Amino acid sequence: MNTLLAAEDLSLFGTDPWWLVLVKAVFCFAFLMVTVLFSIVWERKVVAWMQLRIGPNRHGPWGLLQSLADGIKLMLKEDVIVKRADKVVYVLAPIVAAVPAFMAIAVIPFGPAGNEVSIFGQRTTMQLTDLPIAMLYILAVASVGIYGIVLAGWSSGSTYPLLGGLRSCAQMISYEIAMGAAFASVFLYSGSMSTSAIVEAQQDRWFVILLPVSFLIYIVTMVGETNRAPFDMPESEGDLVGGFNTEYSSIKFAMFMLAEYVNMVTVSAVSVTLFLGGWRAPYPISTFWEGANHGWWPMLWFVLKVQLLLFFFIWLRGTLPRVRYDQLMKLGWKVLIPVSVVWLMLVATVRALRNENIAFTDIVLYVAGAVLVVLLLSFLADFYRDRKKEDPGAGPAAERPFDPMAGGFPVPPKPGESLPPVPRRRPRHQRDLVVSGGPDTAIESDERGTDRV
After folding, report:
1. How far, in Å, CA of 266 to CA of 101, rounded?
2. Where are the transmembrane segments (predicted)?
3. Which one of 257, 285, 332, 353 is most buried, counting C-beta atoms within 10 A?
4. pTM
5. SS3 content of the chain, % helix, strand, coil (to 5)
């Protein structure tokens, strides 16, 4: 039924005249640009409010034109190309990063496909276009955008940008796998990869209620995909100066910043489409107002949901500190990917049992029993593994040697352990009494093998 509905809806696309397609394309571009300009100001205002600061308040009323002033300033800055850079790739990298960020919005529905609106007397849908594999198109476009960051890091001819580009590439690989598994769960329930069909399938219940684990996984992966805090390791100022965009200035740097914020809007729009009912009105409004999902009103609900997710991005930046890179990789490969795969298998099992007309209560019992068995086996495996790791001949904690670099990074001592003694210099009043050539000037050797007086 969902597949037939998707095919019927897709027949509404591709019939607009060329000038109307151009108008809709310009609207999509303008929507992204205006949302980005607003998001930059909103982020500064919200973070300032969280940190008890004023925030921008000079350019325009209440500082609303601050992001526009920043864009003009960046375009008037001196455009510097470093001497060791590969000039062709160096110039093309910001373009490669920015252009794919705008392309995903083409298949996002702003309104129902069956509810046409009038634009200059022409009836059309509130969506630029749709595809039977629209979600695969979004994944492909998101994968292309990472090439701009990688090429920017490589073409700069510097170590820190190269490390930032490699981090971004590894981060994309780690988090896009879990993102694809979260998408697959939505495909199983909607029966289609078309964005308009996925929204139509949420008529009775949003997928955030049916697939809460998929929603949480996608929320985490979309933050990692956009390189936003706390996953902004590709441009970590503490160890990479500025990451992949260290050697960029002027309009090229502005394009990287534009690509980041456009990606924020795009992934938020995808999240709204897949899990939050798309253009549908929230539950209390849709029950007592029949016209809430008709006309131009669906665009209002869609924009409000996107702004809510953008506020979530800002909230994370103002709340959580940046994670270490090993923690970032561990979360992606050891937590998100296994959880997303197991959840996908669970969703597929439930859908298969429902197709066999098995009662919902029986399905819940089967699934709960399987989950309990898996948890029990995991508990037993962890229990015996910890028993095997324990050393029966080890003495009390205070007698065990303490390694301050255990695991490759500094760690504090555990309870009962103490730091090894550190050789210290003699007090100043004793050093002042030392006579040149006297017995107190004997050469001592510290634990590192270097000689000191």
Report:
1. 7
2. 18-42, 88-111, 131-154, 175-199, 205-224, 261-279, 299-319, 331-351, 363-381
3. 332
4. 0.79
5. 65, 0, 30
